[in-house]
């Protein structure tokens, strides 16, 4: 009887115990046979039922683990056989291979097979416990045997195996979960879900259960980290993945934007939810580098790979994994800057972005605007609106880019092929009457949302040139996309939309000036020195002509001053400064090699520290995560990066510092162009809209504000009525323009003295100053008051260091000059706009009219 019980505990069948419930139902436990139960004491029956339940759980878990491991081995063998014979199979052999592939897909997978093997290792302790009990019985050990005759109470056996009740019950529940027909089949359990299940099982207060599930989780984590290292450090990314040969990332094909490179995608089923999105992005970042190097028959340095692999394998699946991946990203990024993403590549890319997005290639920028105007005229105005060709698509705009490059320096530039337009609103067709109201409503919606923070620069200026949202983009391939992130490209696109809108308006006003001048010269052939007309209508015609010339002169002066300031004082100065900083890295000292180790250690330490602090308090070089230009803290960047950048440049410019330099460069460009503050950008957009409205009216009037002498009154209307109507429109535009220019100038003035501006706003609010003016001025003041630290930081840095060469001193002087311009760019714009005191007189007259007192 006792031997039979031990055999049942070891997983062998016996007639003393029967399944419950009986066949054909699925059994859930074992019970003592009714034929034996009638001869047993109730205490003995209870003990046997307890041991039977334990035996049933053991056998169930063991059978599942053994069958799962065997099926996993068979699936792996079938996959290897199919792979070996796939290229030379025919007929029946091909059909057999297809059947083998189906067997691979229906297999349990390598992760479940590994879990089954680890589970069998755990059950070996149970087997040893059975052998130990049998040995004690045979040796008449008094711990189990009660007397010399070998009597062993069943209660002693139950007590001996009682520590296995809870573990086997928990393992049985896990097996039921993995093989349940009602939820997910074992063949559909992804590695990520298996890891989550085991991790959840470790969260228990039973030390025995915790140690068992921790051992199971450790075996799965080791396999997962091995697959992670294969992609992260060795670039193993197959085109397909199977359960028997899973992969962390897959090669999904050629990059459509850069066909010479490949696109890699993480297999989301491989990742548990505990791996954050930031960590996944870093894994893809580093793995793509290793995969690309592998395709080019290159690898990362062996010492670097070995150290990073050891750190990743030791990290586990907790917070240590994020630290290890961050360290790998910093180390690989530094190596990339030294050997792959070299200085000339960066300079070439920055020159291309400067020429096309910052419109430093003025001939090409003007040619593009004229080509788009010609395209709009030919497709939407002169063409048949019901024709299929009367539509503007993205490919039409891309063709216009190529036509615009003819005769310019961009004609032979290979970077031009990577430029493309994006029309977020879809193809543009002639405006139908049914769409006019909805268009007006959407425009009003954009205007009203400008002060709520919902409007972007693209919303304000993207539709300026064509009437529909239009954004210029550039395809950036590897390795340039390592520092030209999507947020960087978006920032460049915003700057281009603003500068293009400004150039387009400036070009329209110049054409309007030319049209007015040509019309006046043509008219003066017949009227002499006057504007013609009878003595009654001559004064009105003269006043209208003078008002039109004054308005277009004010428009042209403002646009000339604004564009020259932006292109000369902001873009050119900062672009040259960035290139000089990059050029300075070539003149490194002998300490570059010795500093590399300290840089790596500082990155590793700062990354660990960054995990325990908030994002706003991280060090400038702590995290290689993609930057965000929309919510960047320019003051903290200037105060930290200005000093740290120069310190690092003295010996070595690493990859992460490059990204910080470029981030600061773009941040100041957006601030110097006055588009970092949406209300200020909206005010500039309103001024441009007024200018375009005036030029459109002049164009509709035939290129002149004055009607022809013989045309007025020909239709029966009163002579002089048309002149008066046009005079009212021109005066309205003039007043609106003066109001907007005064408001813009006042906001710039108040930004130079935020404290006094608050007092002035409070004192003049009763005199009729509008709330919108106050709001815009205060918001611009807060944006501009962050610039005071540039020149001071530059002067401090200029006084440090030992002996310097003449080239270094010249480069440092140019850097200090650029930094001083950063803090004085608003002052320079004020001097350009008010060098003759006109705008100051306008504001003085407005205040005089509001207070009713003479300003003298």
UniProtKB/TrEMBL annotation:
Main location (coarse class): cytoplasm
Single biological process term from Gene Ontology: mitotic cell cycle
Gamma tubulin complex component C-terminal domain residues: 348-837
Gene Ontology CC terms: gamma-tubulin complex; microtubule; mitotic spindle pole body; spindle pole
Superkingdom of origin: Eukaryota
Cited Gene3D superfamilies: Gamma-tubulin complex, C-terminal domain
Gamma tubulin complex component protein N-terminal domain ranges (all copies): 2-299
Keyword Cell membrane tagged: no
Residue spans of biased composition, Basic and acidic residues class: 79-95
Subcellular location per the Swiss-Prot or TrEMBL entry: Cytoplasm, Cytoskeleton, Microtubule organizing center
Family in the record: Belongs to the TUBGCP family.
Protein name as catalogued: Spindle pole body component
Organism: Saitozyma podzolica
């Amino acid at each position: 009887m006792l031997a039979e019980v031990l055999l049942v505990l070891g997983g062998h069948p016996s007639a003393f115990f029967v399944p419950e419930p009986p066949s054909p139902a699925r059994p859930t436990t074992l019970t003592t046979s009714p034929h034996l139960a009638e001869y047993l004491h109730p205490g003995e029956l209870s003990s046997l039922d307890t041991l039977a339940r334990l035996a049933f759980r053991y056998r169930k878990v063991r059978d599942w683990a053994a069958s799962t491991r065997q099926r996993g081995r068979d699936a792996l063998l079938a996959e290897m056989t199919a792979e070996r014979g796939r290229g030379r199979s025919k007929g029946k052999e091909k059909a057999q291979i297809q059947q083998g592939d189906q067997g691979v897909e229906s297999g349990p997978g390598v992760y479940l097979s590994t879990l089954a093997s680890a589970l069998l290792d755990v059950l070996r302790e149970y087997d040893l416990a059975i052998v130990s009990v049998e040995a004690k019985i045979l040796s008449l050990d008094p711990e189990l045997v009660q007397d010399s005759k070998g009597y062993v109470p069943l209660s002693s056996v139950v007590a001996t195996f009682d520590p296995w009740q809870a573990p086997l019950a928990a393992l049985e529940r896990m097996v039921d979960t993995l093989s349940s027909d009602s939820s997910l089949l074992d063949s559909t359990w992804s590695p990520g879900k298996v890891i989550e299940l085991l991790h959840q099982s470790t969260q228990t207060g039973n030390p025995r259960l915790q140690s068992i599930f921790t051992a199971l989780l450790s075996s799965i984590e080791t396999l997962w980290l091995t697959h992670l290292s294969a992609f992260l450090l060795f670039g193993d990314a197959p085109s397909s993945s199977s359960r028997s040969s899973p992969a962390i990332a897959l090669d999904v094909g050629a990059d459509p934007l850069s066909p010479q490179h490949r696109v890699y995608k993480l297999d989301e089923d491989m990742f548990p939810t505990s791996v954050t999105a930031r960590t996944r992005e870093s894994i893809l970042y580093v793995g793509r580098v290793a995969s690309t190097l592998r395709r080019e028959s290159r690898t990362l340095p062996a010492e670097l790979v070995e150290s990073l692999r050891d750190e990743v394998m030791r990290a586990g699946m907790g917070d240590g994994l994020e630290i290890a991946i961050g360290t790998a990203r910093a180390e690989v990024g530094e190596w990339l800057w030294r050997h792959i993403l070299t200085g000339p590549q960066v300079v070439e890319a920055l020159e291309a972005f400067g020429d096309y997005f910052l419109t430093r290639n003025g001939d090409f920028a003007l040619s593009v605007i004229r080509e788009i105007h010609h395209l709009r005229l030919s497709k939407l105005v002169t063409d048949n609106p019901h024709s299929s060709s009367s539509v503007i698509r993205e490919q039409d705009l891309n063709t216009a880019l190529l036509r615009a490059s003819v005769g310019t320096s961009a004609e032979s530039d290979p970077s031009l092929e990577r430029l493309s337009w994006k029309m977020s609103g879809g193809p543009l067709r002639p405006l139908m009457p049914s769409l006019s109201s909805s268009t007006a409503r959407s425009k009003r919606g954009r205007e009203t949302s400008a002060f709520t923070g919902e409007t972007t620069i693209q919303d304000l200026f993207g539709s300026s040139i064509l009437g529909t949202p239009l954004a210029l983009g550039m395809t950036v391939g590897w390795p340039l996309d390592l520092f030209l992130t999507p947020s960087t490209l978006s920032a460049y696109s915003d700057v281009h939309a603003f500068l293009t809108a400004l150039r387009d308006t400036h070009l329209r006003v110049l054409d309007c000036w030319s049209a007015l001048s040509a019309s006046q010269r043509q008219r003066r052939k017949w009227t002499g020195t006057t504007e013609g007309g009878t003595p009654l209508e001559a004064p009105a015609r003269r006043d209208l002509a003078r008002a039109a010339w004054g308005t277009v002169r004010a428009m042209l002066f403002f646009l000339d001053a604004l564009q020259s300031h932006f292109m000369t004082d902001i873009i050119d100065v900062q672009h040259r400064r960035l290139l000089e900083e990059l050029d300075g890295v070539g003149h490194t000292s002998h300490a570059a090699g010795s500093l590399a180790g300290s840089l790596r250690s500082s990155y590793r330490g700062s990354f660990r520290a960054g995990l325990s602090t908030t994002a706003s308090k991280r060090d400038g070089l702590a995290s290689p995560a993609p930057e965000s230009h929309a919510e960047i803290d320019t003051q903290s960047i200037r105060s930290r990066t200005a000093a740290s950048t120069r310190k690092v440049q003295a010996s070595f410019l690493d990859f992460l510092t490059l990204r910080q330099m470029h981030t600061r460069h773009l941040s100041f460009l957006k601030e110097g162009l006055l588009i970092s503050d949406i209300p200020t950008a909206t005010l500039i957009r309103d001024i441009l809209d007024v200018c375009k409205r005036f030029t459109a009216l002049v164009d509709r009037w035939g290129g002149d504000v004055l009607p022809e002498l013989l045309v007025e009154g020909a239709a029966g209307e009163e002579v002089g009525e048309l002149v008066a109507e046009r005079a009212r429109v021109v005066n309205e535009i003039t007043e609106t323009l003066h109001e907007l220019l005064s408001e813009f100038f006042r906001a710039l003035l108040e930004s130079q003295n935020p404290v006094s501006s608050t007092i002035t706003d409070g004192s003049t609010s009763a005199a009729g100053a509008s709330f919108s003016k106050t709001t815009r001025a205060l918001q611009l003041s807060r944006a501009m008051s962050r610039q005071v630290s540039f020149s001071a930081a530059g002067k401090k840095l200029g006084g440090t260091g030992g002996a310097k060469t003449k080239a270094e001193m010249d480069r440092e002087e140019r850097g200090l000059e650029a930094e001083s311009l950063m803090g004085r760019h608003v002052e320079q714009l004020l001097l350009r706009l008010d060098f003759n005191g006109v705008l100051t007189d306008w504001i003085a007259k407005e205040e005089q009219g509001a207070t009713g007192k003479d300003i003298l």
